[in-house]
What does this fold into?
Amino acid sequence: MEPNIINSKFNNTSLLSRISNIIKDVLDYLIVFIIAVTTGCGWVYDYNLDLTNADLYTYLQNMLIVCVIVRLVSFDKLNSSKKYIGRAIVAILIIVTYSFYNTVRVENFNKGQLYIFLWMLLWILLHDDKRTIWNKYVNVVVFLAVMSLFFYVFGSILNIIPEYNSAKRIWGEWKPDIIRNFYYFYYESHYVRIGSTILWRNVGCFAEGPMFNFALCSAFGAEMFIVHNERTGNRKIDSHTLKRTVLIVAILSTLSTTGLIFLCVVGAICTIRNADRFRVTRFLKRHLKLFVTIVFALLVVAVLSKLLSSNGRGSLNVRTDHLFASLEAFLRKPIMGCGWDNSKYIYKFMEHKQGLSVGLPSFLAYGGLLLSSIIFIPIMQDICELEAEKKNHSVRSEEKNNNNIVSFLTHQNKVIFELLFLLIFFFTMVNAYPIVWFFIAYITVDDSAEKVNID
It folds into this structure.
Protein backbone atom coordinates (compact mmCIF):
# COMPACT_ATOMS: atom_id res chain seq x y z
CA MET A 1 0.00 0.00 0.00
CA GLU A 2 2.85 2.38 0.74
CA PRO A 3 4.02 2.65 -2.90
CA ASN A 4 0.45 3.37 -3.98
CA ILE A 5 0.08 6.05 -1.32
CA ILE A 6 3.37 7.64 -2.38
CA ASN A 7 2.38 7.57 -6.05
CA SER A 8 -1.02 9.03 -5.18
CA LYS A 9 0.59 11.87 -3.24
CA PHE A 10 3.03 12.46 -6.08
CA ASN A 11 0.23 12.55 -8.65
CA ASN A 12 -1.82 14.93 -6.49
CA THR A 13 1.19 17.20 -6.06
CA SER A 14 1.88 17.10 -9.80
CA LEU A 15 -1.78 17.88 -10.55
CA LEU A 16 -1.81 20.81 -8.12
CA SER A 17 1.44 22.08 -9.66
CA ARG A 18 -0.07 21.98 -13.16
CA ILE A 19 -3.22 23.74 -11.99
CA SER A 20 -1.10 26.36 -10.23
CA ASN A 21 0.97 26.94 -13.38
CA ILE A 22 -2.18 27.30 -15.49
CA ILE A 23 -3.62 29.86 -13.08
CA LYS A 24 -0.35 31.81 -13.07
CA ASP A 25 -0.18 31.75 -16.88
CA VAL A 26 -3.78 32.99 -17.17
CA LEU A 27 -3.07 35.83 -14.74
CA ASP A 28 0.11 36.72 -16.66
CA TYR A 29 -1.84 36.85 -19.92
CA LEU A 30 -4.50 39.07 -18.38
CA ILE A 31 -1.82 41.42 -17.10
CA VAL A 32 0.07 41.74 -20.39
CA PHE A 33 -3.24 42.09 -22.24
CA ILE A 34 -4.13 45.12 -20.11
CA ILE A 35 -0.58 46.48 -20.54
CA ALA A 36 -0.91 46.17 -24.32
CA VAL A 37 -4.38 47.68 -24.80
CA THR A 38 -3.90 50.46 -22.25
CA THR A 39 -1.42 52.11 -24.64
CA GLY A 40 -3.98 54.52 -26.08
CA CYS A 41 -6.84 52.04 -26.02
CA GLY A 42 -9.74 53.05 -28.28
CA TRP A 43 -12.25 51.44 -25.93
CA VAL A 44 -11.66 54.20 -23.38
CA TYR A 45 -12.59 56.86 -25.94
CA ASP A 46 -15.63 55.01 -27.29
CA TYR A 47 -18.79 56.60 -25.91
CA ASN A 48 -20.64 53.29 -26.36
CA LEU A 49 -18.51 51.74 -23.62
CA ASP A 50 -18.55 52.69 -19.98
CA LEU A 51 -14.80 52.34 -19.56
CA THR A 52 -12.10 54.76 -18.41
CA ASN A 53 -8.34 54.74 -18.16
CA ALA A 54 -8.75 54.72 -14.39
CA ASP A 55 -10.72 51.48 -14.69
CA LEU A 56 -7.95 49.82 -16.70
CA TYR A 57 -5.28 50.97 -14.26
CA THR A 58 -7.35 49.60 -11.37
CA TYR A 59 -7.82 46.27 -13.16
CA LEU A 60 -4.09 46.11 -13.85
CA GLN A 61 -3.06 46.83 -10.27
CA ASN A 62 -5.58 44.34 -8.90
CA MET A 63 -4.39 41.64 -11.32
CA LEU A 64 -0.76 42.29 -10.35
CA ILE A 65 -1.59 41.97 -6.66
CA VAL A 66 -3.54 38.75 -7.20
CA CYS A 67 -0.77 37.29 -9.37
CA VAL A 68 1.91 38.13 -6.80
CA ILE A 69 -0.16 36.56 -4.02
CA VAL A 70 -0.77 33.40 -6.07
CA ARG A 71 2.94 33.07 -6.83
CA LEU A 72 3.91 33.60 -3.21
CA VAL A 73 1.33 31.07 -2.03
CA SER A 74 2.69 28.56 -4.55
CA PHE A 75 6.17 29.14 -3.03
CA ASP A 76 7.67 31.00 -5.98
CA LYS A 77 10.88 32.77 -4.98
CA LEU A 78 12.55 36.01 -5.98
CA ASN A 79 14.56 34.67 -8.90
CA SER A 80 17.35 37.19 -9.31
CA SER A 81 20.90 37.62 -8.07
CA LYS A 82 21.82 40.14 -5.40
CA LYS A 83 23.03 42.49 -8.13
CA TYR A 84 19.59 42.72 -9.73
CA ILE A 85 17.83 42.90 -6.38
CA GLY A 86 20.12 45.86 -5.68
CA ARG A 87 19.12 47.44 -8.99
CA ALA A 88 15.48 47.06 -8.01
CA ILE A 89 16.11 48.76 -4.67
CA VAL A 90 17.83 51.67 -6.45
CA ALA A 91 14.88 52.01 -8.85
CA ILE A 92 12.44 52.02 -5.92
CA LEU A 93 14.45 54.72 -4.15
CA ILE A 94 14.46 56.84 -7.31
CA ILE A 95 10.73 56.67 -7.98
CA VAL A 96 9.77 57.09 -4.30
CA THR A 97 12.08 60.13 -3.98
CA TYR A 98 10.56 61.68 -7.10
CA SER A 99 7.07 60.96 -5.79
CA PHE A 100 7.95 62.70 -2.51
CA TYR A 101 9.13 65.89 -4.24
CA ASN A 102 6.65 65.90 -7.12
CA THR A 103 3.85 68.45 -6.65
CA VAL A 104 1.99 68.05 -9.94
CA ARG A 105 -0.75 65.43 -10.47
CA VAL A 106 0.48 63.68 -7.33
CA GLU A 107 -2.44 61.28 -7.03
CA ASN A 108 -2.30 60.39 -10.73
CA PHE A 109 1.41 59.60 -10.54
CA ASN A 110 1.13 57.57 -7.34
CA LYS A 111 -1.79 55.46 -8.58
CA GLY A 112 -0.87 55.24 -12.24
CA GLN A 113 2.90 54.91 -12.08
CA LEU A 114 4.37 54.46 -8.58
CA TYR A 115 2.15 51.68 -7.22
CA ILE A 116 1.91 49.82 -10.52
CA PHE A 117 5.69 49.99 -10.99
CA LEU A 118 6.33 48.58 -7.52
CA TRP A 119 3.94 45.68 -8.09
CA MET A 120 5.43 45.08 -11.55
CA LEU A 121 8.91 44.77 -10.07
CA LEU A 122 7.76 42.14 -7.61
CA TRP A 123 5.70 40.35 -10.28
CA ILE A 124 8.67 40.12 -12.65
CA LEU A 125 11.09 39.11 -9.90
CA LEU A 126 8.87 36.10 -9.09
CA HIS A 127 9.48 34.64 -12.56
CA ASP A 128 12.30 32.19 -13.09
CA ASP A 129 12.83 33.12 -16.76
CA LYS A 130 11.57 36.66 -17.05
CA ARG A 131 11.54 36.57 -20.84
CA THR A 132 8.41 34.40 -20.68
CA ILE A 133 6.48 37.57 -19.80
CA TRP A 134 7.52 39.21 -23.07
CA ASN A 135 6.63 35.99 -24.87
CA LYS A 136 3.07 36.31 -23.56
CA TYR A 137 3.02 40.00 -24.46
CA VAL A 138 4.08 39.13 -28.01
CA ASN A 139 1.33 36.51 -28.26
CA VAL A 140 -1.31 39.01 -27.13
CA VAL A 141 -0.17 41.70 -29.58
CA VAL A 142 0.01 39.15 -32.44
CA PHE A 143 -3.61 38.19 -31.69
CA LEU A 144 -4.65 41.87 -31.77
CA ALA A 145 -2.68 42.31 -35.00
CA VAL A 146 -4.39 39.34 -36.70
CA MET A 147 -7.85 40.57 -35.74
CA SER A 148 -7.09 44.13 -36.83
CA LEU A 149 -5.65 43.04 -40.18
CA PHE A 150 -8.74 40.92 -40.87
CA PHE A 151 -11.15 43.82 -40.36
CA TYR A 152 -8.75 46.34 -41.94
CA VAL A 153 -8.56 44.35 -45.17
CA PHE A 154 -12.13 43.07 -45.40
CA GLY A 155 -13.74 46.09 -43.75
CA SER A 156 -11.88 49.26 -44.70
CA ILE A 157 -10.14 48.21 -47.93
CA LEU A 158 -12.50 45.72 -49.57
CA ASN A 159 -15.70 46.81 -47.81
CA ILE A 160 -16.91 43.21 -47.59
CA ILE A 161 -17.58 43.10 -43.86
CA PRO A 162 -19.97 45.72 -42.46
CA GLU A 163 -19.16 47.54 -39.26
CA TYR A 164 -20.72 46.45 -35.98
CA ASN A 165 -21.85 49.98 -35.13
CA SER A 166 -20.82 53.61 -35.29
CA ALA A 167 -18.87 54.89 -32.31
CA LYS A 168 -18.59 58.43 -31.05
CA ARG A 169 -14.98 58.99 -30.15
CA ILE A 170 -12.94 61.82 -28.68
CA TRP A 171 -9.14 61.73 -28.70
CA GLY A 172 -6.65 64.37 -27.65
CA GLU A 173 -7.33 67.74 -29.20
CA TRP A 174 -9.67 66.37 -31.83
CA LYS A 175 -13.35 67.13 -31.67
CA PRO A 176 -15.74 64.22 -31.08
CA ASP A 177 -16.24 62.35 -34.35
CA ILE A 178 -18.27 59.39 -35.55
CA ILE A 179 -16.17 56.42 -36.63
CA ARG A 180 -16.90 52.90 -37.78
CA ASN A 181 -16.41 50.19 -35.18
CA PHE A 182 -15.61 46.67 -36.33
CA TYR A 183 -16.53 44.57 -33.30
CA TYR A 184 -14.15 46.51 -31.03
CA PHE A 185 -11.10 44.90 -32.63
CA TYR A 186 -10.66 47.62 -35.24
CA TYR A 187 -11.76 51.24 -35.41
CA GLU A 188 -11.75 53.09 -38.72
CA SER A 189 -10.58 56.30 -37.13
CA HIS A 190 -7.31 57.48 -38.64
CA TYR A 191 -6.26 58.14 -42.21
CA VAL A 192 -3.69 59.95 -44.32
CA ARG A 193 -4.52 61.94 -47.41
CA ILE A 194 -2.36 61.79 -50.53
CA GLY A 195 -3.76 64.29 -52.97
CA SER A 196 -7.44 63.44 -53.21
CA THR A 197 -6.90 59.85 -52.09
CA ILE A 198 -7.64 58.76 -48.54
CA LEU A 199 -5.64 55.87 -47.12
CA TRP A 200 -7.00 54.38 -43.93
CA ARG A 201 -4.45 53.49 -41.27
CA ASN A 202 -4.77 50.29 -39.33
CA VAL A 203 -5.23 51.42 -35.73
CA GLY A 204 -6.56 48.12 -34.36
CA CYS A 205 -8.50 48.64 -31.15
CA PHE A 206 -6.43 51.74 -30.41
CA ALA A 207 -7.33 55.40 -30.75
CA GLU A 208 -4.80 56.17 -33.49
CA GLY A 209 -2.09 54.59 -35.62
CA PRO A 210 0.99 55.66 -33.61
CA MET A 211 -0.36 54.00 -30.46
CA PHE A 212 -1.01 50.70 -32.23
CA ASN A 213 2.35 51.00 -33.95
CA PHE A 214 4.05 51.37 -30.57
CA ALA A 215 2.47 48.14 -29.30
CA LEU A 216 3.41 46.33 -32.53
CA CYS A 217 7.02 47.58 -32.61
CA SER A 218 7.62 46.79 -28.94
CA ALA A 219 6.28 43.27 -29.52
CA PHE A 220 8.35 42.82 -32.68
CA GLY A 221 11.52 44.00 -30.91
CA ALA A 222 10.84 41.62 -28.03
CA GLU A 223 10.17 38.72 -30.41
CA MET A 224 13.40 39.36 -32.32
CA PHE A 225 15.84 40.06 -29.48
CA ILE A 226 14.31 38.80 -26.23
CA VAL A 227 11.95 35.91 -26.86
CA HIS A 228 13.64 34.13 -29.75
CA ASN A 229 17.09 35.59 -30.33
CA GLU A 230 18.63 32.75 -32.32
CA ARG A 231 21.02 34.22 -34.86
CA THR A 232 21.17 31.48 -37.44
CA GLY A 233 18.03 29.40 -36.91
CA ASN A 234 16.56 27.13 -39.53
CA ARG A 235 14.79 27.98 -42.71
CA LYS A 236 11.54 26.19 -42.04
CA ILE A 237 8.50 28.26 -41.20
CA ASP A 238 7.76 28.04 -37.48
CA SER A 239 5.60 29.93 -35.03
CA HIS A 240 8.26 32.63 -34.58
CA THR A 241 8.43 33.25 -38.32
CA LEU A 242 4.64 33.56 -38.50
CA LYS A 243 4.56 35.95 -35.57
CA ARG A 244 7.23 38.16 -37.12
CA THR A 245 5.45 38.17 -40.47
CA VAL A 246 2.14 39.18 -38.90
CA LEU A 247 3.80 41.94 -36.89
CA ILE A 248 5.70 43.31 -39.91
CA VAL A 249 2.55 43.43 -42.04
CA ALA A 250 0.62 45.06 -39.21
CA ILE A 251 3.34 47.67 -38.66
CA LEU A 252 3.32 48.54 -42.36
CA SER A 253 -0.48 48.81 -42.34
CA THR A 254 -0.34 51.54 -39.67
CA LEU A 255 1.39 53.77 -42.27
CA SER A 256 3.63 55.05 -39.50
CA THR A 257 7.00 56.60 -40.34
CA THR A 258 8.23 55.56 -36.90
CA GLY A 259 7.30 51.99 -37.78
CA LEU A 260 9.20 52.19 -41.06
CA ILE A 261 12.27 53.59 -39.31
CA PHE A 262 12.03 50.84 -36.72
CA LEU A 263 11.82 48.09 -39.37
CA CYS A 264 14.78 49.60 -41.26
CA VAL A 265 16.92 49.59 -38.12
CA VAL A 266 15.97 46.00 -37.26
CA GLY A 267 16.61 44.98 -40.87
CA ALA A 268 20.08 46.54 -40.80
CA ILE A 269 20.88 44.78 -37.51
CA CYS A 270 19.71 41.42 -38.87
CA THR A 271 21.76 41.94 -42.04
CA ILE A 272 24.93 42.41 -40.03
CA ARG A 273 24.10 39.55 -37.66
CA ASN A 274 23.73 37.12 -40.56
CA ALA A 275 26.62 38.49 -42.61
CA ASP A 276 28.38 35.13 -42.91
CA ARG A 277 25.42 33.38 -44.52
CA PHE A 278 25.29 35.28 -47.81
CA ARG A 279 27.85 36.58 -50.28
CA VAL A 280 26.36 40.09 -50.37
CA THR A 281 26.26 40.41 -46.60
CA ARG A 282 29.81 39.04 -46.33
CA PHE A 283 30.85 41.92 -48.58
CA LEU A 284 28.96 44.30 -46.31
CA LYS A 285 30.70 42.86 -43.29
CA ARG A 286 34.11 43.46 -44.86
CA HIS A 287 33.05 47.05 -45.58
CA LEU A 288 31.10 47.48 -42.39
CA LYS A 289 32.02 51.11 -41.76
CA LEU A 290 30.71 52.11 -45.19
CA PHE A 291 27.56 50.06 -44.73
CA VAL A 292 26.84 51.54 -41.28
CA THR A 293 27.47 55.04 -42.64
CA ILE A 294 25.00 54.52 -45.50
CA VAL A 295 22.36 53.05 -43.20
CA PHE A 296 22.85 55.88 -40.72
CA ALA A 297 22.52 58.44 -43.52
CA LEU A 298 19.28 56.82 -44.70
CA LEU A 299 17.96 56.83 -41.15
CA VAL A 300 18.83 60.51 -40.76
CA VAL A 301 16.87 61.25 -43.93
CA ALA A 302 13.96 59.18 -42.62
CA VAL A 303 14.04 60.89 -39.24
CA LEU A 304 14.18 64.31 -40.86
CA SER A 305 11.23 63.44 -43.06
CA LYS A 306 9.44 62.37 -39.88
CA LEU A 307 10.26 65.61 -38.15
CA LEU A 308 9.47 67.79 -41.15
CA SER A 309 6.12 66.16 -41.88
CA SER A 310 3.29 68.17 -40.37
CA ASN A 311 0.43 65.98 -41.64
CA GLY A 312 -1.50 68.97 -42.93
CA ARG A 313 -0.89 71.17 -39.89
CA GLY A 314 1.42 73.67 -41.54
CA SER A 315 4.97 73.74 -42.81
CA LEU A 316 6.57 74.21 -39.39
CA ASN A 317 7.15 70.84 -37.86
CA VAL A 318 5.05 69.97 -34.83
CA ARG A 319 7.37 67.33 -33.46
CA THR A 320 10.43 69.53 -33.78
CA ASP A 321 8.56 72.22 -31.90
CA HIS A 322 7.60 69.77 -29.16
CA LEU A 323 11.11 68.34 -29.01
CA PHE A 324 12.79 71.70 -28.46
CA ALA A 325 10.04 72.81 -26.07
CA SER A 326 10.61 69.68 -23.98
CA LEU A 327 14.37 70.23 -23.97
CA GLU A 328 13.85 73.86 -22.97
CA ALA A 329 11.59 72.79 -20.11
CA PHE A 330 14.19 70.25 -19.02
CA LEU A 331 17.02 72.81 -19.07
CA ARG A 332 14.94 75.15 -16.91
CA LYS A 333 14.42 72.43 -14.27
CA PRO A 334 17.04 69.76 -14.96
CA ILE A 335 17.16 67.92 -11.62
CA MET A 336 13.56 67.37 -10.51
CA GLY A 337 11.81 68.26 -13.76
CA CYS A 338 8.71 70.40 -14.14
CA GLY A 339 6.38 67.88 -12.50
CA TRP A 340 4.64 64.75 -13.67
CA ASP A 341 2.51 65.20 -16.79
CA ASN A 342 2.90 68.96 -16.46
CA SER A 343 2.30 69.65 -20.14
CA LYS A 344 1.15 73.19 -19.33
CA TYR A 345 4.71 74.08 -18.37
CA ILE A 346 6.06 72.73 -21.66
CA TYR A 347 3.31 74.59 -23.54
CA LYS A 348 5.02 77.84 -22.52
CA PHE A 349 7.82 77.02 -24.96
CA MET A 350 5.64 75.58 -27.75
CA GLU A 351 4.24 77.22 -30.83
CA HIS A 352 1.92 74.32 -31.62
CA LYS A 353 0.01 74.15 -28.35
CA GLN A 354 -1.64 70.79 -28.78
CA GLY A 355 -1.16 67.30 -27.41
CA LEU A 356 2.53 66.52 -27.01
CA SER A 357 3.85 64.28 -29.78
CA VAL A 358 7.23 63.20 -28.35
CA GLY A 359 7.67 60.69 -25.56
CA LEU A 360 11.20 60.40 -24.18
CA PRO A 361 12.00 64.16 -24.39
CA SER A 362 8.81 65.05 -22.49
CA PHE A 363 9.56 62.28 -19.95
CA LEU A 364 12.92 63.96 -19.41
CA ALA A 365 11.17 67.31 -18.93
CA TYR A 366 8.59 65.90 -16.51
CA GLY A 367 10.99 63.90 -14.36
CA GLY A 368 14.31 65.65 -14.81
CA LEU A 369 17.52 63.75 -14.27
CA LEU A 370 16.12 62.12 -11.14
CA LEU A 371 13.20 60.20 -12.63
CA SER A 372 14.88 59.73 -16.02
CA SER A 373 17.74 57.95 -14.29
CA ILE A 374 15.35 55.07 -13.63
CA ILE A 375 15.59 54.38 -17.38
CA PHE A 376 19.19 55.27 -18.12
CA ILE A 377 20.94 53.72 -15.09
CA PRO A 378 20.05 50.08 -15.90
CA ILE A 379 20.79 50.62 -19.61
CA MET A 380 24.17 52.17 -18.84
CA GLN A 381 24.91 49.34 -16.41
CA ASP A 382 24.15 46.78 -19.13
CA ILE A 383 26.37 48.63 -21.63
CA CYS A 384 29.23 48.87 -19.11
CA GLU A 385 28.95 45.15 -18.44
CA LEU A 386 29.23 44.55 -22.18
CA GLU A 387 32.37 46.67 -22.36
CA ALA A 388 33.87 44.74 -19.45
CA GLU A 389 33.02 41.47 -21.12
CA LYS A 390 34.51 42.66 -24.39
CA LYS A 391 37.88 43.30 -22.73
CA ASN A 392 38.05 39.62 -21.80
CA HIS A 393 38.12 38.58 -25.44
CA SER A 394 41.18 39.12 -27.62
CA VAL A 395 40.57 40.38 -31.14
CA ARG A 396 43.01 40.61 -33.99
CA SER A 397 43.99 44.23 -34.51
CA GLU A 398 43.09 44.35 -38.22
CA GLU A 399 39.54 43.14 -37.45
CA LYS A 400 39.04 44.89 -34.15
CA ASN A 401 36.82 47.77 -35.26
CA ASN A 402 34.52 45.63 -37.38
CA ASN A 403 34.36 42.81 -34.84
CA ASN A 404 33.39 45.21 -32.05
CA ILE A 405 30.30 46.25 -33.98
CA VAL A 406 29.46 42.75 -35.19
CA SER A 407 29.97 41.28 -31.72
CA PHE A 408 27.69 43.89 -30.19
CA LEU A 409 24.92 43.37 -32.76
CA THR A 410 25.32 39.60 -32.63
CA HIS A 411 25.40 38.88 -28.91
CA GLN A 412 23.95 41.77 -26.94
CA ASN A 413 20.27 41.18 -27.50
CA LYS A 414 19.02 42.82 -24.33
CA VAL A 415 20.83 46.13 -24.96
CA ILE A 416 19.69 46.15 -28.59
CA PHE A 417 16.11 45.69 -27.44
CA GLU A 418 16.51 48.48 -24.88
CA LEU A 419 17.82 50.91 -27.50
CA LEU A 420 15.11 49.96 -29.99
CA PHE A 421 12.45 50.56 -27.35
CA LEU A 422 13.92 54.01 -26.65
CA LEU A 423 13.78 54.73 -30.39
CA ILE A 424 10.02 54.23 -30.64
CA PHE A 425 9.51 55.82 -27.21
CA PHE A 426 11.27 58.95 -28.45
CA PHE A 427 8.65 59.47 -31.18
CA THR A 428 5.55 58.33 -29.29
CA MET A 429 3.87 60.02 -26.35
CA VAL A 430 3.29 57.05 -24.04
CA ASN A 431 4.87 58.33 -20.81
CA ALA A 432 1.97 57.53 -18.51
CA TYR A 433 1.03 54.18 -20.02
CA PRO A 434 1.92 50.92 -18.22
CA ILE A 435 3.98 49.64 -21.17
CA VAL A 436 6.75 52.14 -20.36
CA TRP A 437 6.83 51.16 -16.69
CA PHE A 438 6.72 47.48 -17.59
CA PHE A 439 9.78 48.07 -19.78
CA ILE A 440 11.59 49.93 -16.98
CA ALA A 441 10.78 47.22 -14.43
CA TYR A 442 11.95 44.52 -16.83
CA ILE A 443 15.31 46.06 -17.74
CA THR A 444 15.92 46.76 -14.06
CA VAL A 445 15.68 43.16 -12.83
CA ASP A 446 16.02 40.92 -15.90
CA ASP A 447 18.95 38.53 -15.83
CA SER A 448 17.83 36.04 -18.46
CA ALA A 449 18.14 37.76 -21.84
CA GLU A 450 21.12 35.67 -22.85
CA LYS A 451 19.60 32.29 -21.98
CA VAL A 452 18.49 29.73 -24.53
CA ASN A 453 15.55 30.55 -26.74
CA ILE A 454 11.95 30.19 -25.64
CA ASP A 455 10.17 27.67 -27.85
In short: Confidence is low (pLDDT under 50) at residues 230-235, 312-316, 394-401.
